[in-house]
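Appendix C reproduces, verbatim, an entry submitted by the partner laboratory led by Prof. M.T., so that reviewers can inspect both the input and the predicted structure.
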Amino acid sequence: MHTPLTELLLRLHLFAAAPRRDERGDVPGWVMVTVMTIGLAIAIFTFAEEPLKNLLSAAFGQVK
């Protein structure tokens, strides 16, 4: 029979002693996402540079 304190200490010990998962993540996946995001931004900026500049200029002009 376990007391509540003993049971709590046992659970804490089991939690602390549990094997850890690898938290580094998927590095090649992150590299691919980053490269694709940069490529997409470059493609959008190539086709929409002038309208984006006009849009930002108009927005900043209204802030004054």
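The CA atoms of residues 29 and 35 lie 10 Å apart. Additional entries are available on request from the coordinating office.
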